[in-house]
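Worked Example 4.2. Consider the chain below.
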Amino acid sequence: MIVRPREREIRTETIRSCIQEHMEGLRRLHRLRAYYDGRHDVLQRNRVSGLPNCRLVNGFPRYIATMASGYLIGSPVEYRAMDRRQEAALEAVRRVYREGRMDSVDAELARDASVWGKGVEVLYADGRARPRAAALDAREAFVVYDDTVAAQPLFGVHVAKRLTPLGETKGAKVMVYTDERILAFETEDPARLRREDLREIQEHYFSGVPMIEYWNNAEEKGDFEGVMSLIDAYDQLQSDRVNDKQQFVDALLVLYGCSLEADERGRSPGQQLREDKAIALPDCDARAEWLCKQLNEADTEVLKNALKDDIHKMSMVPDLTDQQFAGNASGVAMRYKLLGLEQLTKIKERWFREALLTRLHRVAGFLGRQGALRLDPERVELIFTRALPVNELEEAQTVNLLRGLVDDEELRRRVGA
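Applying the procedure from the previous section yields the following structure tokens:
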């Protein structure tokens, strides 16, 4: 989190220092995205010339991020008014969310938060003055907060490449979002931003900073960031297994008591062996045998499974391909297996809910300026639904047991009807 004291007017020097501080953390963000995309450190590994150098990459980062974000936001968030008088105002917001495909934006933000530790969103008005939202790359955008215990947002910054009509990069565009205005800069180097680079100032009417960060947790850490060393060890182990197999195939033939020479057709000993699949030894006391590296697959498999189990345990994302996991079909057993992921998701949900509530304040404020009914976002309930497999037989049995004890509306809610 980037923190600065609140000023009467935001100075260009303050913006420049924040950009420089953000750029200091870009190496970490680039590495996290590289792992999500399958570009792991093992791809840079070199071995002695002549030895096989297989570099295998596993998909643990993408699996962990997809499972964690999907479990959180796989089902779209529902918004329910606590007060019936707020229902009409909330329906206007729901319509904006439907038209703007907010559920897709939410899914992208949850994925970004799982990878980078935070997702960044910007609110804007389209050509018909309708509020819309877009997810930004966390490597290009950030929010600056004040130095109070409340940590209120001061302004947001989006640094994007400035492209020519030919698709070439020429400097950068720096958009600064305050609580009332948008400042547009054009510069050759964002780290050296000057006041003279300011090109345009316009109002945004969102009644607050329209850039919002969706944190994954209090430390802004990604879901697989803590197990990257285990992932590296798994990559190296699997790569070395293939390297050993290749070296096993390329075994050496050792001759005792003799040496071989080219035959009458000029073929080398190696060529003779490849073509004839046999060699003739000149002396009855001579012998030949293959020199092979002994492979202990059992020990390697134990180590591989141990690393795999540690990755899932430490990331708190279960392995759904585990046969023991799939064999537990009952609801209680399934929830027990998902206990770690559930605890992780509860933490993610708290931070995601806070950001969604901030968005609701901004959108409601924008619609209020257009004359829509005033909505009190604090009187709106945000409902997250876990994307869990359903045991329909077990649900039906539970409903039958509760029939007569619970009203029909509650029973329908229970089965999701």
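The longest strand covers residues 153-163. The mean pLDDT is 85. Compare this with Example 4.1 before moving on.
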